[in-house]
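From the shared-data thread, chain only:
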Amino acid sequence: MSNKSFLSAGPPTADEELVITSTFGSLLSVVYIVGVSGNVYTLAVMCHSIRFATSMYISIINLALADLLYLSTIPFVVSTYFLKDWYFGDVGCRVLLSLDLLTMHASIFTLTVMCSERYLAVTKPLDTVRRSKSYRKALACGVWLLSLLLTVPMMVMVAQTSATSPDGGVKRVCAPTWAPLAYKVYVTLLFGTSIMAPGLIIGYLYVKLARTYLESQSNAVIGKGENKRSPKQKVLLMIFTIVLVFWACFLPFWIWQLLPLYRSEPLSLASRTHTCINYLVASLTYSNSCINPFLYTLLTRNYREYLKNRHRA
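Structure, as tokens:
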């Protein structure tokens, strides 16, 4: 299981393959340049602001680090697109493919923590203020540790193997070595931990927050500008926007991974179509790390506005 699953797809004709590979290789190269630049800028700004030691800044640093790690696999993916072979050995196979899962889980777990922190900041503001810098750092480390634990089976599962190409040659590929049933169970578990469980938690928290704001607005005195979104609400909306972008970019990837595992018959797609879909879902997941820095900038701006208003109060 990986967005590098194109390695096992049957290739189209040589001319079609060159066009498809060049198109997606160029697209991923642009995503890499923009994404790395944006996330490095985000890290520089956040590290300068980390003296405030707020949970928001620590979470954004975590997200930017996860994005950078994920984007770091693009050069290896693009080179494999063009070379049609795996040149990075068994260790590279295990590490690079595992980075997908590690960073994916680190991102969504961090977003879940951010939503939980914002929920508690609204419902129990005094408890949130009392939390120490050590607590926030320990929570961030816990997110990465849990993500790593979920990734370890992938490191064990995949290995570099040899396969016969359609032209009769031999090429190296990264492929799972587990039994089909174990592989199916593991991939389903990963879907639950990266999409379903965080989605249910975040959805529940935002429903509770929506009810809290509706109740506060209904009890508020008319004429004090309640119809205008407060900085606190803007922060919550920006976090939810980042979550929605994550789901929009990764859900197609997961559907594409799970579909063949739960179908009784193989998908009857043309070779070129299969290859294009593989490339497309891979590019979509990488685009998330390219879009995020722009969202982080807006989130930081809204959060600073929220802090200023809170200090004035």
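The chain has nine helices and two strands.
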